[in-house]
Amino acid sequence: MDNSSGVGVLDKAAMVLDALEAGPTTLAQLVSATGLSRPTVHRLAQALVHHRLLGKDIHGRFILGSRLVELASAAGEDRLISAAGPLLIQLRDQTGESAQVFRRQGDSRVCVASAERPVGLRDTIPVGTQLSMKAGSAAQVLLAWEDHQRLLDGLDGARFTPTILSGVRRRGWAQSLGEREPGVSSVSAPVRGPNGRVIAAVSISGPIERLTRQPGKLYADDVVQTATQLSRALQQRSDERDSE
Fold first, then answer.
1. pTM for the full model?
2. Which domain of life is it from (predicted)?
């Protein structure tokens, strides 16, 4: 499908923004992802930074900018969050555990939607909570499908290994036992945007004594099903928008 609008500079700027959907990106990685020349990418990126459509993280990598969050809020709709709400409630009710959706933001992951277990011992993660990308099943999922250099950067200091991430890619889901917090287990699966990139992770989390030391064996199917439903919802909404 030809995505060209006929306005070259806007098409190229859109390519740069699309390349950043998966997370922090160096200039060299932007050049590789877009196929544009280095001077062109540099010029576009700097202009987008000026307008706050892009920003930079503490390592100097490009990230999506704060202006995009403001515009999404002004539009009154975030497709991921609005689609996630009822699916997380369904997942919570199926598993009896708290359910969340995480997005990567720089070197952290942020809870953007949540359905808490109403009673009993639970792992409470309110919307807006920032957690490490170095531990936990959601961090594994958000890192596992990154390109080689991002994978290496993400593994530096992580509580999980390349072998674990290889297993995540093979199975299509991740589990953790006390990685992020002692006594807490979790299971996560990837949410993919319309272009196929992993843009978020669906998770459930709770105490090890309830989820056991093999939480994936109990709940991976439910979590993967929810992540797949959310991915399909995003694709459907994208198709509807494109047909308007």
1. 0.72
2. Bacteria
